[in-house]
Design brief:
elongated; alpha+beta; about 50% helix
Length: about 230
């Protein structure tokens, strides 16, 4: 079964241009600290690195990804990584929708319209009865029990009269969908930036060192000319 049309839900893919003279071994060596975390295994086969993470620790900068491959070819690093966390955040709204819809459906089945109407009328009649109009039990009178207080307007009669609704389900659906969108965009940007920073680290150091040497040589030449 091909999932290429929907695997973008839990899979992150990208391409990153590196220095042409940077070999696959050098590139993987610069990225090595990302795959040396606890509960992480990786293997290198030529120009391809394959990694797997199980129960990654929170401080792991790639803890959101469970497995993936990195390949270096013609000065380009291609990566493809999967995340069960992203998949769970995407499926969670469906779960809460099904849960809320089931609750509403069961309530409708247990309380058909005619029964719900009868219960509403009975509750309305009960609400019209004032506590002070109900005679107290002789035992309560003998024990000097306090008289029942009058209910305030809008006070709930009881939790049993609460009907299931989709409001809570919609709230959780929105939360998890927002988490998926934020994670899908943010995690991709973060991992791309980390790869780019590490792959350009040595080149940047060499470039700064070269500029420093050229500047030092220029200062010496000026001094010698004087």
């Amino acid at each position: 079964m091909k999932l290429s049309y929907i695997d973008w839900i839990w899979r992150v893919k990208g391409r990153l241009t590196i220095q042409p003279n940077c070999s696959a071994a050098q590139a993987f060596d610069r990225l090595g600290d990302l795959f040396e975390e606890k509960n992480t295994t990786c293997r290198v086969e030529g120009d391809t690195l394959v990694f797997t993470k199980k129960n990654a620790l929170p401080q792991d900068k790639m803890s959101v990804f469970d497995r993936g491959t990195l390949q270096v070819s013609h000065g380009v690093l291609c990566y493809s990584m999967t995340s069960r966390a992203l998949l769970a955040c995407f499926l969670a709204p469906l779960f809460f929708y099904a849960l809320g819809y089931t609750g509403v459906a069961v309530d409708k089945w247990r309380n058909p319209p005619e029964l719900a109407k009868a219960k509403a009328e009975a509750a309305k009649k009960r609400s019209l009865v004032k506590p002070e109009d109900v005679p107290m039990n002789p035992v309560d009178t003998f024990l000097h029990a306090p008289t029942p207080e009058k209910k305030k307007d809008g006070e709930e009669i009881g939790k049993r009269n609460r009907k299931p609704s989709m409001t809570t389900a919609y709230t959780y659906m929105g939360i998890f969908f927002a988490l998926w969108v934020a994670g899908r965009i943010l995690e991709h940007k973060l991992i791309h930036a980390r790869f780019r920073k590490r792959l350009a680290g040595d080149d940047a150091i060499e470039a700064n060192a070269s500029m420093h040497e050229r500047g030092f040589a220029a200062d010496n030449s000026v001094r010698n000319a004087r």
